[in-house]
Design brief:
alpha/beta; Glucose Oxidase, domain 3; 6-stranded mixed sheet; 3-stranded antiparallel sheet; 14 helices; 22 strands
Length: 561
Amino acid sequence: MLFGNFSLAFLVLFFLPLAERLHVTPDIADEQLRNVYDYIIVGGGTAGLTIANRLSENPAVSVLVLEAGPLDDARNLSIPGGLLPVPGTIGSGGWQKYQWELTTEPQTYLSNQSVGIPQGKAVGGSSILNGLCWSRGSVSDYDGWEKLGNKGWSWDELLPYFKKVVHVSYPQYFYDQSSNVLDGFAELGLPIIGDVNNGTAAGAMILPSSMHPGNQTRFDAREAHFDSASLSTSAHNSSQRVMGVEFAPNNKSKARSVSCTREVIVSAGAIFTPTLLQVSGIGPSDVLKSLDISVKIDLPGVGYNLQDHPMVYANYYYRNESYFTSGEIADDVYDEVAEEYIRNRTGPWTAPLINTVAFPSLRSATKDWKQFMDKSLGNNFPSNAPNSGQLTVAAQKTFSRGTVRPSSSSIFDLPRLDPRYCSDPIDCEIIVLGLQMNTKLIQTNAMKELMPEAESAFDTTDHETLMKHVMEKITTERHPSGTAAMMPLELGGVVDPELKVYGTCNLRIADASIMPLIPSAHLQASVYAIAEKAADMIKSAKPDCRIGERLPFPPRSRPTT
């Protein structure tokens, strides 16, 4: 596997005769770069690196990965500043170079507020920035994918791919408050889940993390699938079918081309994958024509079906100073905590950002859950705040759907993101129910041991007050998905169960964008599973795509928002 690391603004796909030639964009003066590769992967993040590693296990093939973000030496991502490889730490602001600073369009249903949705921009993608949470969704999440016409994507058939990731463990350090939170949920009647990844997600639990059990460091896609990979120097196939990649650092730089003999796999994430397709001429014809983009494939589902996990931060403060918090790692103890981690790999720095979670069902949150369902088919956390905690509420199975659209015909312009948060009011209602449940949690005997103070949204269960809080403070878990959905074309799908883009025979997508329905979990584990399954599909595929071949479309309809 050869990795092309480029300080570029964006990648772009261009089609000549479809399936005859495919172009993409960054800049490189790397003399090691060949003119032809068997596989080209656009996006060196969680999914892209996983697929690249699996494909390069075969020494007879060559793989090129294109990534816009930096390829830093892992030793540079170290204490005390910048992005730290220490679980639970983000450093003192140096992480900005490792993420795309994306912001939504003003949200109509949130008083026209915009919401930030930063995404990973580095070798390893968002896996180097996430909260390390390792959770699978419920059995019904993935069985739902299969019921939409995606044979082979049920829980049972994905389970072996979930299990291929080995470096997942529980952190060695837990804040004592975690026990109070779990006991409090138990008082409210929620079950405490032992095996959090067995497909029964409803309940309270301690989450495992994507970290090394031995040295207690973050285990991301770069370390798992890039640092351990070897270069392939084999000869290429002599196939007459040609696909290519064109790349440049910006719109003023000279582009360079690289050809591909087998497939292009786009793994640029749920925001940039649909952007790449549309700028390439694959997407809704009306959108493309409005931007003067030549329509190569009229594929209405591209960029639709955007789903996310909207959430609200809610703080609680307490007077019992016998409980240590991360906010107390001030200057006087910072060096001590750092030294403990560096020498022993123990202490607070081994605790991830999130370790205690609950996935209460709607049934457990309100007795009126049936009536409730019939109604619809900002961060305010102070830095270094001592004696405080956070009980974040996020809607997991959302009903709102949004869009990702290019802002122009140039890939160098950031896309327009419109998640349409709370366009279906049930999503915000669910968050309000979660805040009401948090208020009850704070009042349990277990949480009273902390001597909590009334603060933020925890001093009331009043619906109007809490809804106002939600509308003002809503943010996101940064889990965009669904924008190139694996569904039948007539339902607005973009890829088939083999992850091939409809109308093509040599273009696949493998990342969170193919999820037809967002799972009730952090997305990291699901993205790894998608990538592992995609790699097996690609390795077993027969190269039978002819030059310029266009596959016939099944019947379709245009999705609505």
